[in-house]
Amino acid sequence: MRIFDPHIHMTSRTTDDYERMAAAGVRALVEPAFWLGQPRTSVASFTDYFDSLVGWEPFRAGQFGIRHHATIALNPKEANDPRCAGVLDVLPRYLEKDGVVAVGEIGYDSMTAEEDHAFAAQLALAIEHELPALVHTPHRDKARGTERTIKVVAESGIEPGRVVVDHLNEVTVAAVKDSGSWAGFSIYPDTKMSPPRMVEILKQFGTERVLVNSAADWGKSDPLLTRETADLMLASGFSDDDVDLVFWRNPVAFYGQSGKLDLDDIAPGASFEGNSILRGGS
Amino acid sequence: MKPEELRAALDPSAVDWVDEAMRQVWADPGAIARLFPRAARACGRGPIKDGWTADEAARALLLAALPADRVAVEVDRLYRYGDASEKRAVLRALPLLPIGDAGVPLLHDAIRTNDTRLVGAALGAYAAHLDAATWRQAVLKCVFMGLPLSIVDRLDERADEELRVMLAGLAEERAAAGRPMAADATGLLHRLAGTALRKEA
Ligand SMILES: [Zn+2]
Question: What is chain B's mean pLDDT, rounded?
């Protein structure tokens, strides 16, 4: 089984997680820029973070034969802090990077005017840099937040098929699918979405234009829930081909719209001139 | 490697892209900010010659097209905002650029990382600008990281008694831990020890 996790925050995970993910079949992933739990207070904190998403993390992932990509954006939560507004000005540099396959995570947290501004500005950047967009839906007031998200996406002029609206559930999935955008689901141990609920949604809404991710981060989460969901799909009567569609070909099709997805010769043990570099700490 | 040699080693389609991109940089040096990250998509990432890859060569040619008074500032900015491949290309291009020792802070940054591609690229010909203490630490770091010492420019010429002492200490620690030291590092240690013995005699 080959798995492409389309949304996971590896910065917050250990190298042991990379090892376990590789053993479970994860061969590629996308790490969206998001907030790190502790609010940042300057643009420089963001650029250092973005640097690690296009520098250190791809290197770390490469040790386990996992191809790492990123999405870059000013996240909705920190868009509310005027000290971080300058992040919008440095985004164009990062959106040109080889490993950056979308603008994201953008969208709403508390649905403020500042969030409106950052969301619209970054959808415009996605159009300008010919990238798809990864849109986060709020945890609070989710149904109305999702409705408003769909409206803003439509107003921006970006093609809906180049947008994934993420963290959906039974209540919000239909509207997103109807809008023409991709439906994203984050499988969490306790909240958001569980493997059994996900399998039910796939039965009801089908396997097309669906991205299933672990969204694993610094919170209570599990990078192997993609594999667990895939196993449950098989146990519930889905075919190997269905699983491959959801966990590989769908993310490849979605992020492939960037023209930058590079999945050639994925093999374990990335090395420099023949020397493995699995040992760290020098 | 001179810029002409790098250009000659590229595929014809990559040469076309690079020539056009260099024209844009001549006309407007600021254009390099957008062209530099695009070079790998346009020219490929495969090996071409003497350890250079196509994207590194294309990026070095873009840097070589900058007017002399803009090189230092653009190199600094491209490295600052570069992904790992772009940073590596900047480091490899340093010996080809009219930049004096202005690139030394970039070597220090690269050597501080734990990314073997960057540490390795910092020890080419431009490392001649590094002071002896930094250079020795970087060589020792290569041994720690398992990098082949063949990437270090003028290794035997610069290796000194102080480096011998550092390598001998590492060899002792490794022996105590039951782990071997890489053959090329052991070889260097033996060569340095031989020189030390001949001096005593
Ligand atoms: Zn997320």
Answer: 96
